[in-house]
Automatic annotation (TrEMBL):
Name of the molecule in the record: Cytochrome P450
Any one GO molecular function term: monooxygenase activity
Record PROSITE patterns: CYTOCHROME_P450
Domain of life according to the entry: Bacteria
Cofactor: heme
Keywords from the named record: Heme, Iron, Metal-binding, Monooxygenase, Oxidoreductase
Biological source species: Caballeronia glathei
Family to which the UniProt record says this protein belongs: Belongs to the cytochrome P450 family.
Positions of the UniProt region annotated as Disordered: 1-29, 449-471
Amino acid sequence: MNAPSGTSHATAPGEERETPLFVSPLPQPPSRRYSSLGFVRASRRNGLHVWPHDAYERDWVEQRFFGRKRVLLNKPGMIHRVLVENHGNYGRTGTSIRLLRPLLGDGLLLSSGETWKHQRRTIAPALAPKMLPMLARHVAECTGEDVQALAARKGAPFHLLPAIQALALKIAARSMFSLETWEYGPAVRAELVRFFHHHGRARLLDMITPVSMPSFHDIGRARFRRRWSALLDRIIDARERVPDAHGPRDLFDLLRAARDPESGAAFDRAELRDQVATMIVAGHETTALAIFWSLYLLANVRDAQAAVAAEVRDADLSPARAGVMFDALPYTRAVVSEALRLFPPVWTISRQCIAADRVDGLSIAPGTLVLVSPWVLHRHRAHWANPDAFDPSRFLPGAPPPPRFTYLPFGSGPRVCVGAQFALAEATLVLARLIQAFDVELADSDPVRPTAAVTTSPDRAVPFRLKPRGP
């Protein structure tokens, strides 16, 4: 699986494919399966390193995990059973709840049962496709501002990911709050960095003790939760002091006005705070990584970057037109889709079986840890040709779509990411504007490998050069 990098070539619109395709450096799979303790240690170092070679070829992989069964599912019918057909029988694991609740509270990502249904019904209209032009306007405004700042660097090398994370956070904040100057950005980013560094990685006690039994590490998470909630309350207070407009300006207006279509209930203050946290965190960190990996791939594959540049050269990506341009950028969108395949920001989906089930002939006992890993699934030998290679033509109009449940960058089933369409549009529009403005290059030749703890990130700070394009 750890193939060497090939010649930088991808199939652009109207071209015949040439070989070899570009293959990014990858973490080496283990030569044998880990013990339970070895799995925990490997997960903390790099979650992409835990699955052996045969996991990328088999329908499922079973292992023991501290006396319980752990099973990785790769077969589409099995994934459909767990995430769609019988999803109510597979709840979030105690580990994921313990790690994420301090950050997201009881928002849409972590809620369950009737609470989740109420939140989903209430939020879905705010992120309906008809809202895309309003949200795309914020994307275009923020990206345009950052293009000016990046141009002032005049091609000097800099670490790109923090800049993209700051841009994505600004987009998320402005989409949520419409605040032209967002003074809280540095504080929000600092808290998120602190959380991911100190609290976001699962430790042994997090995995083996019930959520109802606080661990030593939960003390620090509780302190973080108090600081984080207070910061979110200050942000909401500031937004509520802004005079009302005649119509919705942002997601905050939409969420504040939203009513459950069945009960008529609105979000109370605590629920509103948790939804704001969920949308800011889930809406900016994963999108920033999708944009970063897209730029990394284009920096390595010059003809693919040239194809994007040709597509966006005369595109009107202004705030007034960005919302209608998304469908006019098929190659740029295909690059983002392929980056999401190769480097899915959410690298694993974990569930715990509640009642005994049978999944395509496999018996699943109560308490079994059931995993679907987009990282493995997107590189599975049975589902993809040249699975480790960068090839945007897989997602161009006219190409056969991936079989269902083999491509899950946003999850699947009732709990699929409610903002998936907006996230794809945002990443596409930002990438289009950046390539329209800059020729993107890597500033060194050191290998870049993905690593995963909470999300799929580069294993080092990667310097880039963004050189302004000529007329």
